[in-house]
Design goal:
heterodimer, A: about 800 residues, Ubiquitin-like (UB roll), Dimethylsulfoxide Reductase, domain 2, B: about 425 residues, de novo design (two linked rop proteins), 3 domains, four-stranded parallel beta sheet, four-stranded mixed beta sheet, 16 helices, 10 strands
Chain lengths: ~800, ~425
């Protein structure tokens, strides 16, 4: 639309014709009050707070529905307008309880703000307020009905944003009330977006309500530890006798990659951190075979001593290392460096949930293949979704795709063997046999014999191929050569970008950082370490090591002297028989006494992702900053444990972690910072990569090395500043990685095991979240008592992937 | 069945077939029925609209928008189907004219919908009846069936090659859906909540298609315009207020009923001559000229012509034609309370000023009338009403605020006389005075 010029409060403004006045004003820094208006959701014109005066128009107009046109003249603040808004606030307060001193929203309530601004301080009424009892709608959603001001934001975010439509309006007039879909409770995806979007304290969170006040918490923005989308979650943290307690997760900081969105896991499933059965003391297996509490020094000495002994006696080849999908890039990088330079082994692997190595190789080999950032799922004009069920496994990607269809009229093409909820937004769906994912690509590429295709199928293909620009998302149904065929197909189209959908917050980072037996960080083959040999200061093992299955096979043969496990539960995930490991010295860094930890000789109590700093990379290749929020006395970060063990084994800490290269002159705070101002100098130093790294336990020293050495992680223009500011940085996989198939040695084994998590599960970690369990329990019970197949269409408790595996 | 009244001053146009059994198509045809639709087919779209403009017919729902002009806003070309909608959700207290049309002359409504459809190029029309008018639905549906049987609806109507269908539909008991956009929501099966405008129905209406929505009386008048000619019709009324109007005279008059009088007919004459004066020869206290939502007129203000412009000049509105006459036994506080009870009950609850404002007005008036009023209530009520006025999404808020402001302005003393727990000095016979309301 062409730009038009109009006047607001005497200022000339310019905006495209048809822009909503409230948005045009916001862009110009003119705030117009609003309860019902919410960007991106349907217009309501219900709260009447945004009334403004338009010249030559009789009545006050709502800024949320007025579209700007050339020459219009508006006034947004005047005694008349202030009076209109004051009267509206007075009317709302007529029935709204004045329980601000105990209300969860007190201090961050939009109605409170408006009352302060327009001063509806005198009560006009003598009659009693309307009262209704509070309701609990689900384990995590409560509704305090009298506080509701009927702005309908929750109804819209549930309907338009989530496509769940679990909320609606009952009755009419002053008895109107928001009601859940099951009469007295909700059956939904439990995302809690209705709570975030509520301008007052009507919808409250089951984990947070009545626990504290907003101003008593520190608010730390970090990355959710659960799925591989990597949403920013803002954790409300309060001091506790054992460190810092996380009280709530929310998304009031809308600056993140997830915009308005957060799912149940990001919002509620931090509660594992506060569980009483968290390990806070190292455990050592005594002579009787029992795990007994020990001091950190005892545990670290025992670990380092044994590992050193076994390395000397049996060689690095007899030691296996299994890394985590939930530790930071810095920790993963450090772990592989530790394994390769200190333990002297390439026997390192992790629970692979997608074939990132094949993905990166396929993109790189063809040179012009480009990966997509998660943000593109909200803006791409057309999207092809191959396999996966993002609603369950990638809630943010699903939200983005729905938003893209709703606001941008994007076309979504779905290829799946089973119905998925996103098909409701799809332009077209291609149903294929369960084993037909490879054939589906052949069919889309033009081979009519690959699928029993009808006209609809051919129509799907024609429409898809006619797209001028296509975003291709594929799930872990595609591995190895299958991934290459997807990329090959996409590169035959006019324009395509790709993303590979794995599970867990840092699965991509684990692969990128070389937690693989055949690949170094940046997917460099172990046979061609190049400059790394010199950088790491010594020889690196140059033949591929054992993969995860081979490590356990070796243990079964009695050939595995030691196993070092960081934040992973392979014993359960891969169904390892305990006796397999009876002759292996096992070290486990873990939060809980998991099935794997129970077999360990040394269990080291680990901090989780909310208790450390560093970076993670989501499945789309977007790198983000993790900020330490919580703290639990007695635990240590995996980073610290690795460094301590390595140094106790005789390694040079400075070689492992290149600390101490900063600018020593800038160690002190600037004077302003001492008096409470932001330490601008420190911010500048940090942004320019000059902050002093004084400690071998500083993960950012390793980030420096990652940026220097790992292909694909080279610092980008403004990169570090963006990263430290909490923004996501899309990292393009190395364009020509040395890891061409020729270098990769014999055909790599397919070790991908999808996590098959649902909205309410999250691998081993999910089992330790009471909130996830309570919701899962509620839905499983509901499914059992009603005889329905779980939650249709939400299908709680089981994803397409899980059905696959079972089938 | 409502009984019919008559007066020599009446000019029977819309009501010309009332009481003659015209609900049966044979009688309707014998009384020149469906001739207008045939004429309209010959005239074609532009001809129909020109004729309607010439008739000076203004919408009978209350706002008085010129009908021909409204029809001309519908785009000629449209990707989505166009619709004609007859608004028969007659719910304004004091208004009871459309039910006579549905009962005595349903075919005129059908014929009006057909002509509107021809004017805008629609293939489909809906007749939406108020939920409480369910007993009229059988009459309307029989009439529609008859029209189909005669080939006046369905494929190739009147042998013209044009297809046109009509469906009837009833509301579910909400005053709010008398508002045109809320009616469309209701007809689409949703909550009866008004839509945001623009876009207006002529551009985006029912099911997203361009839609003409008119009051039942308006559309029932249309065939008569073609029957007697637009110029002749226009001559009946005053300048810019063409034709006649069905006035619903109720309250404390000797001969209440629905009278068809030329636009601009004197209100005083209507009460004292047509209506036979105040019942029992009592004194007149006030007149609500156009349905419960219109501001009250004092006895000295009623010497005016009943058309949109003159009533507007007198500070009220012609509205829906419901003239409610109050004699000196009526307590205005109680009358205001009754009015507010209605609007509070009927507020859809969508927007804050109407939802909350009508409720507080009702609560305050209830207490006030019961003798619990305090001095500041009077100003508070005025303040409340004035802060609802013009601030709501649809006119329901105004409809509740306007009469309240009128009562408080013109009868302040009566409110003051209720203060301090004093017994009501006005309603000497209690509710009996308002019995038929």
């Amino acid at each position: 639309m062409a730009d038009v010029t109009f006047t607001v409060d005497g200022k000339k403004l310019t905006a495209p014709a048809g822009t909503l006045l409230i948005e045009a004003c916001r862009a110009a820094g003119i705030a117009i009050p609003q309860f019902c208006y919410y960007p991106g959701l349907a217009l309501q014109a219900a709260c009447r707070m945004c009334l403004v005066r338009q010249e030559k128009v009789g009545k006050l107009q709502t800024a949320c529905t007025t579209q700007v046109a050339e020459g219009q003249v508006f006034t947004t603040e005047s005694p008349e307008i202030a009076q209109a808004r004051k009267a509206t606030v007075e009317l709302v307060l007529g029935n709204h309880p004045l329980d601000c001193p105990v209300c969860d929203a007190g201090g961050e309530c939009e109605l409170q703000d408006m009352t302060f601004k327009y001063g509806a301080g005198v009560s006009l009424y003598t009659e009693a307020k309307q009262h209704r009892e509070e309701q609990q709608w689900s384990p995590v959603v409560f509704f305090d009905r009298p506080r509701c001001i009927l702005c309908y934001r929750c109804v819209r975010v549930c309907n338009e944003g989530m496509d769940v439509a679990a909320l609606g309006v009952q009755s009419r007039g002053v008895t109107s009330v928001i009601a859940p879909n099951m009469g007295d409770h909700l059956e939904c995806e439990e995302c809690g977006n209705c709570i975030d979007i509520c301008p007052v304290g009507a919808l409250t969170s089951g984990t947070y309500r009545y626990k504290t006040r907003p101003w008593e918490m520190n608010h730390v923005s970090t990355i959710c530890t659960h799925c591989a989308d990597g949403c920013k979650t803002t954790l409300g943290v309060r001091s506790a006798n054992y460190g810092a307690e996380i009280i709530r997760g929310d998304n009031r900081d809308r600056s993140g990659i997830n915009g308005d969105f957060l799912c149940i896991k990001g919002r509620y499933a931090f509660d594992f951190a506060n569980r009483p059965d968290r390990l806070t003391k190292p455990l050592l297996r005594d002579k009787d075979g029992q795990l007994k509490e020990a001091t950190w020094e005892q545990a670290l000495d025992r670990t380092a001593g044994r590992l050193r002994e076994l390395r000397e006696s049996r060689g690095g080849g007899a030691i296996g290392v299994i890394g985590s999908n939930r530790t930071t890039n810095e920790e993963n990088y450090l772990l592989q460096k530790f394994a390769r330079t200190v333990l002297g082994t390439n026997n390192i692997d992790h629970h692979r949930t997608a074939d990132y190595a094949a993905f990166v190789r396929a993109l790189g080999e063809r040179g012009r293949g480009r990966s997509a950032s998660l943000r593109e799922t909200a803006s791409a004009p057309a999207v092809l979704l191959l396999g996966n069920d993002p609603t369950q496994e990638h809630p943010l990607a699903a939200w983005n795709l729905r938003t893209d269809v709703r606001l941008n009229q994007a076309r979504l093409y779905v290829v799946n063997h089973t119905p998925i909820k996103l098909e409701r937004q799809a332009t077209a769906t291609l149903r294929i046999p369960q084993d037909g994912y490879g054939n589906a690509i052949r069919f889309l590429a033009g081979d009519d014999t690959a699928l029993p295709a009808d006209d609809a199928g051919r129509g799907f293909r024609d429409a898809l191929r006619a797209e001028p620009s296509l975003l291709i998302l594929f799930g872990s149904e595609y591995r190895g050569a299958g991934v290459a065929r997807v990329i090959e197909f996409g590169l035959g189209l006019a324009d395509a970008r790709f993303a590979c959908l794995g599970d867990y917050v840092n699965s991509r980072g684990a692969a990128d950082m070389g937690l693989l037996p055949d690949l170094l960080p940046g997917y460099l083959p172990v046979s061609k370490p190049g400059g790394l040999v010199e950088e790491y200061g010594g020889a690196l093992p140059q033949t591929p090591g054992m993969d995860l299955i081979q490590i356990f096979d070796a243990a079964a043969r009695g050939d595995l002297a030691a196993l070092y496990v960081v934040g992973s539960n392979p014993v359960l995930r891969y169904g390892i028989a305990p006796e397999t490991l009876k002759n292996t010295f096992i070290v486990v860094q873990e939060m809980f006494l998991t099935e794997t930890a129970q077999l360990a000789d040394v269990v080291l109590p680990a901090a989780n992702l909310y208790e450390k700093s560093g970076t993670v990379t989501n499945t789309f290749g977007d790198q983000q900053l993790v900020n330490k929020a919580g703290d639990l006395a007695g635990t240590r970060s995996d980073f610290e444990m690795i460094v301590r063990i390595a140094t106790k084994m005789g390694a040079d800490a400075k070689k492992l972690v290149p600390y101490g290269r900063g600018v020593r002159a800038d160690m002190g705070q600037s004077r302003g910072a001492q008096s409470g101002e932001a330490d601008r100098h420190a911010v500048w130093l940090a942004a320019n990569n000059l902050e002093p790294k004084l400690s071998p336990l500083d993960p950012f020293a390793v980030l420096d090395e990652i940026e220097r050495l790992v292909p694909g992680y080279e610092p980008q223009a403004g990169g570090r500043a963006e990263l430290m500011a909490g923004n996501d940085i899309h990292l393009e996989p190395p364009s020509a990685p040395a890891a061409s198939s020729a270098d990769a040695g014999p055909a790599r084994r397919d070790l991908v095991l999808p996590a098959a998590d649902t909205l309410f599960t999250s691998g081993t970690l999910g089992r330790y979240s009471e909130k996830l369990n309570s919701v899962l329990e509620a839905y499983t019970t509901a499914a059992r008592t009603t005889g329905r197949d779980g939650l249709s269409p939400v299908a709680a408790g089981e994803s397409a992937g899980e059905r696959d595996r079972r089938a | 069945m409502a009984y019919l009244v008559s007066h020599p001053d009446e000019v029977k146009v819309v009501s010309s077939r009332f009481g003659k059994g015209a609900a049966s198509i044979e009688t309707y045809l014998a009384l020149d029925g469906y001739s207008s639709a045939r004429k309209a087919i010959e005239l074609g779209s532009d001809g129909i609209i020109a004729e309607m403009k010439a008739s000076n017919l203004r919408g009978r729902g209350g706002a008085g928008f010129p009908t021909g002009l409204k029809w001309s806003f519908v785009p000629k070309q449209s990707a989505k189907p166009k619709y004609v909608l007859l608004n028969g959700d007659e719910s304004e207290p004091g208004t009871c004219k459309d039910r006579l049309i549905f009962e005595h002359d349903p075919h005129s409504a059908i014929e009006g919908v057909i002509i509107a459809g021809l004017a805008i190029g629609a293939r489909m029309g809906f007749i939406y009846l108020r939920g409480e008018y369910r007993y009229l639905l059988t009459i309307m549906e029989r009439a529609i069936d008859e029209a189909y049987a005669h080939g006046f609806l369905g494929k190739n109507i009147f042998g013209s090659g044009i297809d046109f269908d009509i469906r009837s539909h009833t509301g579910a008991g909400a005053y709010e859906v008398g508002e045109e956009s809320a009616l469309m929501e209701s007809l689409e099966g949703k909550r009866g909540i008004p839509r945001i405008r623009p876009p207006f129905p002529a551009v985006v209406g029912l099911y997203g298609g361009p839609t003409v929505i008119n009051n039942a009386e308006t559309l029932a008048t249309v065939p008569h315009v073609f029957r007697i000619g637009a110029a002749e019709y226009a001559k009946i009324g005053t300048e810019r207020n063409g034709g006649t109007r069905l006035f619903c005279l109720s309250g404390n008059v000797e001969r209440p009923g629905v009278y068809e009088l030329p636009m601009g007919y004197n209100l005083k004459k209507m009460i004292y001559e047509v209506g036979g004066g105040i019942a029992g020869g009592r004194a007149l206290k006030a007149v609500v000229p156009g349905g419960a939502s219109t501001p009250v007129l004092l006895p000295e203000e009623i010497d005016i012509g009943m058309d949109f412009d003159q009533v507007g000049k007198a500070g009220s509105m012609l509205g829906s034609g419901g003239v409610v006459v109050l004699d000196d036994r009526v307590c205005i506080v109680e009358f205001a309370l009754r009015t507010m009870r209605f609007y509070q009950h009927e507020s859809c609850g969508w927007c804050i000023p109407c939802r909350e404002g009508t409720d507080w007005l009702k609560k305050t008036l209830t207490r006030f009338h019961a003798g619990g009023g305090v001095a500041k209530d009077i100003d508070n009520m005025r303040y409340l009403a004035e802060n609802i006025m013009g601030r709501t999404l649809c006119p329901l808020g105004d409809a509740a605020a306007m009469p309240t402001i009128g009562f408080l302005k013109k009868f302040r003393k009566e409110f003051e006389d209720h203060l301090d727990g004093k017994p009501c000095a006005y309603a000497e016979q209690g509710d009996a005075a308002l019995a038929p309301a």
